[in-house]
Specification:
This protein has 190 residues and is α/β, with parallel strands linked by helices. It contains six helices and six strands.
Length: 190
């Protein structure tokens, strides 16, 4: 296999049942690290998001990044994949966002938490809205499963890939919904 010299910032794109996604990466401290995962959402494909956010970016791959992309693809197909944070550029996030993302990463498959519960877990009980904003800006959706955070009343809240995708991901993990569309709150974490 020929080794492709990576560009300063590169991407790898894949398809999934939810549309395409892109993994944006670069070499950092002599190893491949993920800077962003971009999901397709209603009205904006991952390719369009890449063009808008990273104009002129090129494609290249390495074994480690290909493996993460395969894991994301498998996860989106319903496989119970748990990702490590080792290859994520959490250093690009604020201290508060890092703490929120790490807490979110700790929520196991088949469970949900609320923005309020996460805020309390972090020792900042009045910061539920800030938790929601930190998750809305999650640079690593799927790797950090922010679809597992919902509103205190059981409504979905937001999601980068759209609410239909969030609901489907939760259903794939065994989360159930009431007839009203609210999440049944039997499997809360934190």
């Amino acid at each position: 296999m020929n080794v492709i010299k990576p560009l300063p910032i590169s991407l790898i794109e894949r398809s999934s049942p939810f549309g395409s996604f892109a993994v944006v990466w670069s070499i950092h401290e002599k190893r491949p690290m993920i800077r962003r995962v971009l999901l397709s959402k209603p009205g904006l494909s991952a390719q369009q998001a890449v063009k808008e956010t990273f104009p002129g970016i090129g494609s290249s791959a390495c074994v480690e990044i290909v493996e993460v992309a395969r894991g994301i693809q498998a996860f989106l197909e319903g496989e119970p994949i748990r990702f490590s944070l080792e290859m994520t550029r959490l250093d690009l996030c604020s201290a508060f966002q890092k703490s929120v993302l790490r807490a979110e990463h700790g929520i196991p498959r088949g469970r949900v938490s609320t923005y309020q519960r996460i805020a309390r877990y972090l020792g900042r009980p009045s910061s539920a809205r800030a938790v929601g904003m930190a998750l809305a800006r999650n640079p690593f959706p799927i790797i950090i499963p922010c679809h597992r955070a919902i509103r205190t009343d059981g409504r979905l809240g937001g999601y980068q890939g759209g609410l239909a995708m969030k609901r489907k991901l939760l259903e794939m993990e065994g989360i159930t919904f009431e007839d009203s569309g609210y999440v049944t709150m039997r499997k809360c974490f934190y």
